[in-house]
TrEMBL record:
Signal peptide location: none
Swiss-Prot/TrEMBL keywords: DNA-binding, Repressor, Transcription, Transcription regulation
GO molecular function: DNA binding
Descriptive protein name: DNA-binding LacI/PurR family transcriptional regulator
Pfam assignment, any one: Peripla_BP_3
Transmembrane feature ranges: none
Coiled coil: none
Superkingdom of origin: Bacteria
Organism: Microbacterium resistens
Record domain HTH lacI-type: where: 12-66
SUPFAM superfamilies registered for this protein in UniProt: lambda repressor-like DNA-binding domains (SSF47413), Periplasmic binding protein-like I (SSF53822)
Length: 352
C-alpha cells in the first residue's frame, strides 16, 4: 500500500493525464488545445483523465502561447463602501460573458497599498486595469504599459494620459444643496466632507460652495475626514454652532453615517431638526427605515463605459485619451422630509 503523507496534493500535470489516458503528452496537448484531426476515442480518454485528475491547466503557459493572461485588475478605495461594491459587481457581470478573471485590490485610500497592487498586477501581466486611484507613483507607468481606465476620481499624474469615466459630482452636489435651500427654505446647510485630496470630494465641495453662494448663505464646513468616527467628531463640533432646522450635505456614505452619529449624540431628530443629503449608495439605511435623499451614481452605466473604453484601448493603443461622464441621479427620501416619516426619526446608538 502506498503511504500517504499529510499536506497539499501536487497539481496534476500533462504527463499525469497522458499516463492515465495511455497516450503521449503531445496527444494530450492536441486535445487540450482543441486541434483538428484528433481521433474521438483518444479525445474521450484524455478528457476523462482530465476530469478524474481535476486538471485545471497552467495559466502562465497559456499566456505565453496567447500573449494574454485572461486577467483584469480592479483597484477600489474601500470595499466597505456600498457604491464600490456595486461597481465591482457590475464590472464582474460584464466580464463573465467574455471569461476573463477579475483580480480585486482594496487600496484603503492609501497610495502605498495601491502601489503594491499595481506592482502585483503588472507582474501578472493583466490584460487591462480599472483603477479608482489614490495616487500611487507608478500609476502613469501602468497606464503606459497596460490598457487602463480611471474611474470615479482622478489624480494629476494621469489626468491627461489615461481614459476616464467620471460622474457629474459638482452638478449633483449643487442640486442637493440647492434643494435644501430653495425647496425647504433652510438658511443654514453644513458640509461634512472627506479628504479633499480626492478629486470627487473636491468637486462635491465645489458644488456645495456654488449652491451656498447662489443662496447668499454662509458656509458651515467640516472637512478632511477619513472615517465615520472622524466625521462624527467634526460634525458634532460643527452642528453645535448651528440652529435647527438646518441641512447637511455629506460627501459620501461614510460621511453620512458620521453626520447621523453626531445628530444622534446631540439629541436632534431627522428630518424635523436636521435634513440630510449625500452622494453614494446608502444600502445600510434600509435597515433603519430611512430612505436617504441622495445622489446615486448609475453603476451599470459606469461599468459599461469603462469596459468599452478598455476594449477599445486594447484594440488600438494609439487612441488619444478619452474622458466620458455619467450623470448622477437624485433620489428624494425621508432624510430631507420629501417622503414623510410617521414620526420624526431620532437616531438611537449608531455604530460607525
Amino acid at each position: 500500500m502506498t503511504e500517504t503523507r499529510p499536506g497539499l496534493r501536487r497539481p496534476a500535470r500533462l504527463v499525469d493525464i497522458a499516463e492515465l489516458a495511455g497516450v503521449s503528452t503531445k496527444s494530450v496537448s492536441r486535445v487540450l488545445n482543441e486541434e483538428a484531426y484528433v481521433a474521438p476515442a483518444m479525445r474521450d480518454r484524455v478528457l476523462a483523465a482530465v476530469k478524474e485528475l481535476s486538471y485545471v491547466g497552467d495559466a502562465a503557459a497559456t499566456g505565453l502561447r496567447t500573449r494574454r493572461s485572461g486577467l483584469i485588475g480592479l483597484i477600489i478605495p474601500d470595499v466597505r463602501n456600498g457604491y464600490f461594491a456595486l461597481l465591482t459587481r457590475a464590472i464582474e457581470e460584464r466580464l463573465a460573458s467574455t471569461s476573463p478573471t477579475l483580480l480585486l485590490g482594496d487600496s484603503d485610500e492609501e497610495a502605498i497599498q495601491e502601489e503594491r497592487y499595481l506592482r502585483t498586477f503588472r507582474q501578472q501581466h493583466v490584460d487591462g486595469l480599472i483603477v479608482l486611484p489614490s495616487g500611487a507613483a507608478s500609476l502613469p507607468d501602468a497606464v503606459s504599459e497596460i490598457p487602463t481606465v480611471i474611474v470615479d476620481r482622478t489624480v494629476p499624474s494621469v489626468r491627461k494620459i489615461a481614459d476616464h469615466v467620471l460622474a457629474g459630482n459638482r452638478r449633483a452636489a449643487e442640486r442637493l444643496v440647492g434643494h435644501l435651500v430653495k425647496h425647504h427654505g433652510l438658511s443654514q446647510v453644513a458640509l461634512v466632507a472627506g479628504r479633499t485630496t480626492v478629486s470627487n470630494v473636491r468637486d462635491r465641495r465645489s458644488g456645495y460652495n456654488r449652491a451656498i453662494s447662489a443662496g447668499g448663505l454662509d458656509p458651515y464646513i467640516t472637512v478632511g475626514h477619513a472615517t465615520p468616527d472622524d466625521a462624527a467628531a467634526g460634525a458634532f463640533e460643527l452642528f453645535r454652532t448651528m440652529t435647527p432646522p438646518f441641512g447637511v450635505f455629506a460627501t459620501n456614505n461614510r460621511m453620512f453615517w458620521g453626520a447621523m452619529a453626531a445628530i444622534a449624540r446631540l439629541g436632534l431628530h431627522v428630518p424635523r431638526d436636521v435634513l440630510v443629503t449625500t452622494i453614494d449608495s446608502i444600502g445600510e439605511a434600509t435597515v433603519t427605515g430611512l430612505k436617504p435623499t441622495q445622489g446615486v451614481i448609475p453603476v451599470q452605466s459606469v461599468a459599461a463605459k469603462a469596459m468599452r473604453l478598455l476594449a477599445e484601448r486594447a484594440d488600438d493603443p494609439t487612441l488619444p485619451p478619452r474622458h466620458e461622464s455619467v450623470d448622477i441621479d437624485i433620489e428624494y427620501g425621508t432624510t430631507c422630509g420629501c417622503i414623510p416619516l410617521t414620526t420624526p426619526l431620532m437616531m438611537g446608538p449608531v455604530s460607525v
